[in-house]
Task: structure prediction
Amino acid sequence: MQMFKAPRGTVDLLPQEQRYWRYAEQAAAGVCRRFGYQRLDTPTFEASGLFVRGVGEQTDIVQKEMYAFEDRGGDLVTLRPEGTAPACRAYLEHGMSSLPQPVRLYYFCPIFRYERPQAGRYREHHQFGVEAIGDGDPAIDAEVIQLGWSYARELGLGKLSLVVNSIGDPACRPGYLQALKEYYGAYLPHLCQDCRGRYERNPLRLLDCKQERCQPFIASAPRSSDYLCDACKEHWRRLLAYLDLLSIPYTTSHRLVRGLDYYTRTVFEIQPPDEGGQSTLLGGGRYDGLVQELGGPPTPGIGFGSGFERMVLNLKRQEVRVPEVLPRPVVIVHSGPQALEYGLGIAARLRKESLTVIVAPAQRSLRAQMRYASSVNARYAVVVGETEVRQRTGSVRDMDNASQEEAPEADLAAYLVAKVGLEQAG
RNA sequence: GUGGGCGUGGCCUAGUGGUUUAAGGCGCCAGGUUGUGGCCCUGGAGAUCGAGGGUUCAAAUCCCUCCGUCCACCCCA
Result:
């Protein structure tokens, strides 16, 4: 019999992992609530064309990473490889341009990209993302960045760095790209193999090369911020002023470029302290042409995506304290068939009071059941045997200090609720 | 897609050609008498040593292929 495994690049989120995810999710939802962002859920798959148009034909995502297939009706669909295009599609489809602008949205969703898995990178990963659509002012850029920064900080991660850059818009970027190519043209023979390809296909990426030999060229390459048109320059200047005003520590980097075609002007990332490839925890930027590209009216927008897997990785690395999701249970320990029946009734009543109750496995000795209670980290055990059944009582054992008290069946719930309440208060 | 490391019970590891009918630890199950846990003790279940092929009298151990996994690159969250 062949054994099945989770598909390559996917993982099972086991119970002991869950607390990290709930922790990050709750932080994200909380920040969004405070900033007035509303949740949007879009389908897990979309028409392939949405991504080809939105993300860009030349991007790696479209070229080689899409989970695309023809469905039984002959439609070409793709498992969502990113969150912004679907959000913009929904914005258009549901006439959100007639809502008060900007429309502030957030989402949690799985993202699919066919890539070779490695540390912090999966074929299915999960993103928390935010989009503010319908406002082109840099104040919104600052808001979205502030939201992302607050989220990352709230998780308790230390030593994060925020990097921002402006890559211009359709008015000024061509001029910059040309300057870049002219600059690099002279050094082509000295560049690494990858960079020679980038020179032709995507010059901006030249700035992102990690090869030792290419570093000197990057350092003295022309900077996008020096080639901005007046409008972009003003946008950039104001954004930085707002970030200063908000006391959000940032560094600017002309090396920060992002891989999706739709980005204009502002791009930003939040990175953890440690070096290494897959380190970006949160990344985004402005996409003023995207909605129009998808067939809508000219509509500015800005947003970011943040990968849960990487956040969790860093939470663990930095040993951030994360609360347990499941409270320590009350375990019903029973001896004999009558006691089991009696115990089941008690369990039901305790659960009505919202306590977490586990009935110890049947057909085991009392001793084994007590061991079981310990092994599941029970806070209290309610022991019921012949005596308790006869007297309609339960013996409540405090598993931490081995003290034990008997209480009438009718009072058990209230008794334990008081105990547990005390516990949680302390 | 390219390059490298690694694949021994659920988990971690020992064993690098014949004392191996593969060992230990954790975990799991049972027991340590009569109704009670955490420590300790005893016992048990659980591995065709990733798969296939080859070399050899003999392979977990050497070689090849494939698969998986991890890491790095490309790229990205």
Summary: The longest strand of chain A covers residues 103-112.
